[in-house]
Structure formats: structure tokens, C-alpha cells
Specification:
Length: 231
Amino acid sequence: MKSLLIFLLPLCYVTPAIAQDCKGFYYLLNNAEIEMTVYDGSGAATGKTIYKVNNVHKDGDGVISDFSNTYYDKNSKQVATSTGHFKCSGNGAAVDMKMNFPSMPNTTDTKMEGKSNGAFLDYPSHMQVGQELQGGSYEMKNKVKGMEMVLSYTIRNRRVTGRENVTTAAGSWNCYVISYDLDFQMTMMNKVIPRKFTAVEWFAPAFGPIKTASFSEGKKMGGTLITGLKK
């Protein structure tokens, strides 16, 4: 359960921008790749996710890209994949929230059926410290060893709480710090398991998430960090 929850939190984020800046976004570069390393609560690497941009095209007054993400465990074994969409326009950017469920570690035979409620998480083009951001809710049905599992979550109380510089193996960025609450629920064999979390992301304008961390009852559960870029 813990490994699943660590992995769920950080993967649904994108970069805000005004329309004329859309072409410079990493998630809008064909064949670009982003490596995001996943860590447990003690800081040990448990795997990594590779995002790859597959298709970029115009969408009304903005731009949209399709991208896949593949999760590998700590032994570099591929576990599962999923897909998502990055949108950029004059209002900012958004990504469908099913990217919060890209794979489930330790369940290599999981079949992701991906029942989408069409929810997106938005980032405005001009963020400010103290600004409240829109939340969202999502639900996905999965098959785990032939049994149905329903995963659902609600992100709320999103707020820009500061600015910080973050340096990783992939580069350096000046980031907005965004905090939020996450209400998670897993239902399997008519048993409901609810959990509540708090999370923080370090978000770089004109790029996207650089670092994340999640907490339960004050204890760090895990996080992610960008460790590689290719284009």
C-alpha cells in the first residue's frame, strides 16, 4: 500500500505558460524525455518514471501534446505504462488527472482499464505567492490478479506558498512551492481503505515539476526528483 501511495502523488503536474511561450515547453517538444526518480520516505530510490512526448499539435488557440510514461522498479524492470495529454494556451496549462495512476508497483500483471472522468488539473499562466489554485477529483478502475480495484482521489486546498531554487542532476530551476491536501480511497472486494495526505511540489515556470514530497500524519511517505532530460 505504501509503495502505491508514494507513486501516486507526484505524476500529474505540468507547466504554466502564456500562448507565445508554449513552443518552449519541454512537454511540447516531440521525442523529449524526462526522467523522474521515485524515493521512499527514507530517501532511498525505489524506481523511476520516464516521460516521453509522442505527438504535438495545435488545439484551437493553444497547443496539445500526447505523452507516455513508463515506470521502472529499482532493478530497471519495466512495471507498467500509461498516457496523458499536456495542454498549453493563453490561460495556462492543464493535464488529465489519470496521470496520477500511471502504474502500480509490485503488481506487474495489473491491467489499467482507465475509466476516466475527464478531470484536468490546471496551472494558471501567472502564479503568485499566496494564490489559491484549482483542485480536482479523479477515479480509475483497475484489474489486479483478476479482481477489480477502484482508486479515487481528491486534491484540494492547493496554494502557492513560496519560491525556492532547486538544483538536481538535470539542472537548476527557480520554483514555485505549491502545497495541497489529498484524500485517497482504495476499494477492493467491497472493502474501502481511505487515507489522507499532504503534499508539496516544487514547480518551475516554463518547465514543470522538479521535486515533490508527500506526508501522512506528519511522516514523510516519499517523493520524486527530476534526474535526467533528453531531447
